[in-house]
Amino acid sequence: MVSKSKIQTIHQNTYPAISPTRPELSTKGKSALISGGASGIGAAITQSFAQSGITNLAILGRTEKSLLEKKTQVELISPATTVWIYVVDVANAKATLSAVQSFAASINGKIDILIANAGYMSSLNSVSDSDPEDWWLGFETTVRGNFNLLQAFHGFASQQATVIHISSSAIHLPYMEGYSSYRSSKLAAYKLFEYYHEENPSFTVVHIHPGLISGTAMTEKFGPSVEKFGLVYDDVTLSGDFTVWAASEEAQFLNGRLVWATWDANELKTMKDEIKADKARFTMGFFT
């Protein structure tokens, strides 16, 4: 999906600069926790971190079967990676805290990387026609769930931890019928992570729009909109690999920024000084 930023080079597939097998992007010796990491975009992110050689990996999700399958896949990709899985709904604060505590205790240390990926898209009805329980579930997962996750993570975060928030380009877009729950909850989540960034200056917090991805639970709902507007899907491997790059030292200059996985990493690096000098660049207030 093409963005309207000033980035000249846009990708729909992964490319060498963000390959998780690059030595510069190695996560060997580090620990990471990924919410919603067993399906869809989260599964691709999990796979990319496995390819980067992550030492300790915790995967949170709501379905034991998908978690077990992803654990097996990670262990095949990276036999040196130790994988923990937790059947957790992040909207449940006690269960989320228990999972994070268990992972931290298991690795006898701190968590270096948090990938906050869990989200929910309610049925695409008007505000007046929406089922209230389904509509609010978007906020329960995307806002309350991420709040719970950040609170649980905070006590076990390494001193210079990296937090990646999987956001959405939808928060920039004008009205589109049926998306009131999804877009408003995603916008609220962005602000939540914006505050967490400002409150924790030793951490790196990056928001990522992962691209327009097919084959996910959400695709079944927004697929007709993609066809209606003639949009093109991006490859999910791009989402995973870009996230690994965004969590690396190379991308620390993006701290506090919202970037698209489709944007060229090399081009972003050439803008490093410009971005660091302009505190509003690539934030919700100023996108270009």
Provide tags for this entry.
alpha/beta, Rossmann fold, SDR_fam, NAD(P)-bd_dom_sf, 288 residues, oxidoreductase, 9 helices
Largest sheet: 7 strands, parallel
Spans with pLDDT under 50 lasting ≥5 residues? none
Strand content bin: 5-15%
Question: What would you call the structural class?
Answer: alpha/beta
The total beta strand count reads 7
- Please tally the helical runs, counting DSSP H or I stretches of 4 or more residues: 9
Fourth CATH level, the homologous superfamily: NAD(P)-binding Rossmann-like Domain
For the record, the CATH architecture stands as: 3-Layer(aba) Sandwich
Radius of gyration using CA atoms only: 18 Å
Summary of the model, kept short:
By secondary structure, the protein is an alpha/beta fold. It has helices spanning 40-51, 64-77, 93-107, 132-154, 180-199, 219-228, 236-246, 265-270, 272-277, and strands at residues 31-35, 56-61, 82-87, 111-116, 157-166, 204-209, 258-260. It has one domain (28-277): Rossmann fold (3-Layer(aba) Sandwich), CATH 3.40.50.720.
Could you explain the architecture of this structure?
- The mean pLDDT is 93.
- It is globular, with a radius of gyration of 18 Å.
- The chain starts with 30 loop residues before the first strand and ends in an 11-residue tail after the last helix.
- It has helices at 40-51, 64-77, 93-107, 132-154, 180-199, 219-228, 236-246, 265-270, 272-277; strands at residues 31-35, 56-61, 82-87, 111-116, 157-166, 204-209, 258-260.
- It has one domain (28-277): Rossmann fold.
- Strands 3-2-1-4-5-6-7 form a seven-stranded parallel β-sheet, with helices on both faces.
- With 288 residues, the chain is of the alpha/beta class.
- Helix 3 (93-107) runs parallel beside helix 4.
